[in-house]
Design brief:
The complex is a heterodimer of chains A (about 120) and B (about 110). By secondary structure, chain A is mostly beta strands. Chain A is about 0% helix and about 55% strand. In chain A, the strands form two sheets. In chain A, strands 2, 4, 5, 6, 9, 10 and 11 form a seven-stranded mixed beta sheet that branches. In chain A, a hairpin with a 5-residue loop joins strand 4 and strand 5. The mean pLDDT of chain A is about 90. With about 110 residues, chain B is mostly beta strands. Helices cover about 0% and strands about 60% of the residues of chain B. In chain B, strand 9 and strand 10 form a beta hairpin. Chain B starts with a strand and ends with a strand. Classes of the chains: A mainly beta (about 120), B mainly beta (about 110). The interface between A and B is medium-sized, with 21 and 20 residues.
Chain lengths: ~120, ~110
């Protein structure tokens, strides 16, 4: 079945630094990937839709200059949290879909802690 | 009011019990999804439905398009079924709209 690999699974960084999270579709081409954020015991919140070869579409309230998304190839999308602050600490997870008739495949998630 | 509502929010049952989780939605959809999130955070897609019923092992998902309602059933529940179950709908483009999740605990 379809697999999306997400790295790193956990990261601790200092305030003011940047962190990059990668999502790779291993056995299919993902023209679109989705990035979500999840607070403890809350549901997933869509941050942005990442389209291969074009700019990401951000949801209302998500700072595009803070959460940089790059989708340079059909199998790789990255989320960079720039100038990280403790309030950026959260669980970030990506997903992709092979096509409209398929379900969504999720990465394993990244737990970011900013100290 | 959320576009996707799940009930119950929390459910605790004994091993072997039949489990039902409900999902109602208020928007037009192209598909409904049931997801499972384990304590480590990983999410697995269980079902994608646009009509009728699907079965996979001990899991059954049904959807009634007219009533805008779906149910997820687990037969012969087991402690390893303990997880958060999330109902989500594809309501346009490819974006998912999520319910708030149901935290299921199965005690041995």
């Amino acid at each position: 079945g379809a697999v999306v690999s997400q790295h790193p699974s956990r990261v601790i960084c200092k305030s003011g630094t940047s962190v990059k999270i990668e999502c790779r579709s291993l056995d299919f081409q993902a023209t679109t990937m989705f990035w979500y954020r999840q607070f403890p015991k809350k549901s997933l919140m869509l941050m942005a839709t990442s389209n291969e070869g074009s700019k990401a579409t951000y949801e209302q309230g998500v700072e595009k200059d803070k959460f940089l998304i790059n989708h340079a190839s059909l199998t790789l999308s990255t989320l960079t949290v720039t100038s990280a602050h403790p309030e950026d600490s959260s669980f970030y997870i990506c997903s992709a879909r092979q096509g409209a008739v398929y379900g969504y495949t999720f990465g394993s998630g990244t737990r970011l802690t900013v100290v | 009011k959320n576009e996707v509502e799940q009930s119950p929010q929390n459910l605790t049952a004994q091993e072997g019990e039949f489990i039902t989780i409900n999902c109602s939605y208020s928007v037009g959809i192209s598909a409904l999804h049931w997801l499972q999130q384990h304590p480590g955070g990983g999410i697995v897609s269980l079902f994608m439905l646009s009509s009728g019923k699907k079965k996979h092992g001990r899991l059954i998902a049904t959807i009634n398009i007219q009533e805008k309602h779906s149910s997820l059933h687990i037969t012969a529940s087991h402690p390893r079924d303990s997880a958060v179950y999330i109902c989500a709908v594809t309501a346009g483009a490819q974006k998912l709209v999520f319910g708030q999740g149901t935290r299921l605990t199965i005690n041995p």
